[in-house]
């Protein structure tokens, strides 16, 4: 099944030495941030930065062009305030929700991420297992370093396969058939990569796939010997889900791979054909407008993911939290809407639910957890986000995710009512003082 091996044969380390190196590198000593020093998702970004070669850190962290959309995705959550309702019975908070036909213990799913095994050898298996133990769904990418079959064997939880539509339709059908055989639950067609985003950090840091030393990246790799030894000890990685012939040993840059292989003419009738072939819940990820949401509803898909690929594709688009409510209002009675991109806090999850999203997806945060600490890092990321979500629900007086509504959210720049109606209303403080006499 291994179609590409991202490691020069001459550099492979095998046998006992491989085991020894892996064991001693589990939690390296040369870093400041340890797993128990991470108290929120942003802390994991710092921990990952300390352990990853800088080209890899910037590959995860970077966005397209000026990264305005990437930054807005998170900061725009501050444009909305949560409104608590007190004196409610919140002794038990029920966060369960069924989304795209899969049961979630709490309303989060893991976004698909490419090249996951490059960051830490625990790779996609560990992420899928951590998702399953936390009761959330895992999405496996077409660009994953673990096969559809191996992820299915490793983790019992709900699984989504993210299809990047390739130019070769036989290859697309082969991937879908493998997912059917492996009993994946949902097929997710990502539509925002028809053109490669301009990720300037990758150009500056000299990132190639597979990682190869060059004058731009040599210092970045040399400063992280623990990662280098571990990568060599693991024997490199492959992209086992891409059918033979649709890639090659040396992808060069991801942008070049996308340009050469991605289908650039995805039509709604193609979506309908794929959906019929799959025959189970089918979702489209990457939509950012009411018009596209309406087209999705007309085509009969199960759901959509409002996403700008974490700001890694189109720069200059809106933050997804600013888009989701209008899209829910347009199609929420016909399909399920999930929000992706920028979620870093439980309060963000709750704000998205208040807008009408059925759940949120996270990508970078779990990759940071994985890169820094392997599977325990992903588990802690999910544990912290779950606690924050539950705490926030309690703090706004909701005993269940189904109680969260637009009543719990207001625009942060809304002026106090007295500024809008000053002329008509008496001063309430004066009124109160008089009535006390
Ligand atoms: C792949 O999906 C990427 O965003 O790099």
Helices and strands in order, then pairings?
Layout: H1 15-24, H2 41-51, H3 54-61, H4 68-75, E1 80-82, E2 97-99, E3 102-104, E4 108-110, H5 116-119, H6 123-134, E5 137-141, H7 148-154, E6 159-164, H8 169-181, E7 186-190, H9 200-205, H10 218-222, H11 225-234, H12 254-261, H13 268-278, E8 282-287, H14 290-299, E9 303-306, H15 320-331, E10 336-340, H16 346-355, E11 359-362, H17 364-373, H18 375-395, E12 409-411, H19 417-421, H20 428-436
Helix pairs in contact: 1-11, 2-17, 6-18, 14-15, 16-18, 17-18
The structure holds glyoxylic acid.
**What's the main sheet like?**
8 strands, parallel, barrel
Strand content: 5-15%
Helix content: 40-55%
Please state the second-level CATH architecture: Alpha-Beta Barrel
Radius of gyration: 23 Å
Number of helices: 20
Number of DSSP strands? 12
Tell the overall outline. globular
The ligands bound in this entry are: glyoxylic acid
Intertermini distance: 85 Å
Structural class: alpha/beta
The low-confidence runs, each spanning 5 or more residues with pLDDT under 50, are 1-24
Major beta sheet, strand line-up: 4-5-6-7-8-9-10-11
Report the CATH superfamily.
Aldolase class I
Number of domains: 1
CATH class category: Alpha Beta
CATH topology name: TIM Barrel
**Average pLDDT figure:** 90
